[in-house]
Amino acid sequence: MVEKLTINVARIREDFPILKQQVNDKPLIYFDNAATSQKPSSVIDAIDRYYRQYNANIHRGIHKLAEEATLAHEEAREKVAKFVNARQTGEIVFTRNATEALNLVAYAWGRANLGKGDKIVLTIMEHHSNIVPWQLVAQEKGATVEFVNIDENGELRQDEVHELIDDKTKIVCMTQASNVLGTINPVKEVARVAHRFGALLLVDAAQSVPHVPVNVQDIDCDFAAFSGHKMLGPTGIGVLYGKAKQLESMPPFLGGGEMIREVHTTGATWKDLPYKFEAGTPNISGAIGLGAAVDYLSNVGMENVLDHEQEITRYALTRMKEVQGLNIYGPMNVDHRVGVVSFNLGDIHAHDLASILDEDGIAIRSGHQCAQPLMEFLQIPATSRASFYIYNTKDEVDVFIEALERARKIFAR
Amino acid sequence: MSSDIYKDIILDYYRNPRNFGDLPDADVRAKDSNPLCGDIIEMQLKIMDGKISDIRFKGKGCAISQASASMLTEAAKDKTLEDVKAMGKTDVLNLLGIDPGPTRIKCALLGLKVLKLAVYGHLGQTVTEEVKQLV
Prior knowledge:
heterodimer; A: alpha/beta; Aspartate Aminotransferase, domain 1; Aspartate Aminotransferase, domain 2; 2 domains; 7-stranded mixed β-sheet; 4-stranded antiparallel β-sheet; about 40% helix; B: alpha+beta; Sufe protein. Chain: A; 3-stranded antiparallel β-sheet; 6 helices
């Protein structure tokens, strides 16, 4: 098959050593990118180089290695800031992952700013990581949590956005791209609605920053959270973007070394942004690896990443519709979604389907996708999910479709 | 079209589960779920002279969990409670005729766990850590 692609996938695949292997004697087809992406050699090498050549603790040492490590760590922050168009590096706080970034806002901002009767508005398509911290802080402060629902296409109910966000609303927390439905949400419009009522907007960007160009200033969100490991970087490093004005007004999240200016027996004062929120020795190698991942994505170009994934997704949706008994959840319009496709095949349990696909070397996710409220809303126990990235091809989609047909026939016996 | 895991026998038990349903005069019932996937199994046992005289199961979930639970009900019938307490992972794998591998083994063992919970419950004994760790 001749593929008209916007990026050179064959060359990109060369950069990912893990993709060269066989699984169950079949070439690995990795369609579990929404869970975590694979890593290019440049990221693996950057981490390796740090540990082999300049491993040292940062911000404290006076010696050569400490200076080099500090420089590399802060360079990574600059790369991330530029990647999402933050105004300054102080607005980029390194965390363990998107979950920790969301918790940071819920605890540090939420505890200081939420009170009895205040409203937190979420959407029904949130990941558990953007639900549970808000339920915890709401319980503690006497605030309420309300959910914007979705329509039959799996898109946000705009009428409910306007209905639910009101004078009592202090913060709106929503995903920019659903990890189940793939739906891209109109975060920029929601930011305007929230700000009109004096509420803040927190964007869960874990599924968007890796796949679409994200410009935090253009969205005008107050916070955004994402994970390094879903965007070609290593695990254990995540990012909280916050407007400097908000971050400055917030108390610290975790206390300890690195985040203090002065400590006395009577109390302590905090460092400037972003260090106020980075207690303890950070994940230095993780930040450096993330910096290399940002370089890789920037070289490919995020517009190209998006184009390629939309082309693969469009092809996958078309082919999947041909499979008898296959139900797809989420928007069928590719312009309204990222390359995450959740589905069920007849009455085959998602785990059985994943096992059969695994026999063919295909990695997909199955289960409630850490979105039980959405599963309840859709009235399904679980879904299977295929999610694509820059290294996936239409040929792989063809093998995936054949495997779905095989599963259907096995269970039709 | 062949599958290493989904042999005809497993699919047959999944499609036509033996001993499925309720046992109205059951002496003991037990129920548990696999938190990873939400699969549920309930077992209902009739016990006479220290033996399982009748048994039914109900549940929702994947083919592995439902087929292995159904197979277990057949294997457990007429067994003494002590026999059931002695059953382990190998017995379940022998019934299935396959090893579903590390990611799916808990699906296969959910039925055994529930069966043992019922037996320990009936005997009024504390459930061992080994049983708790099955799923």
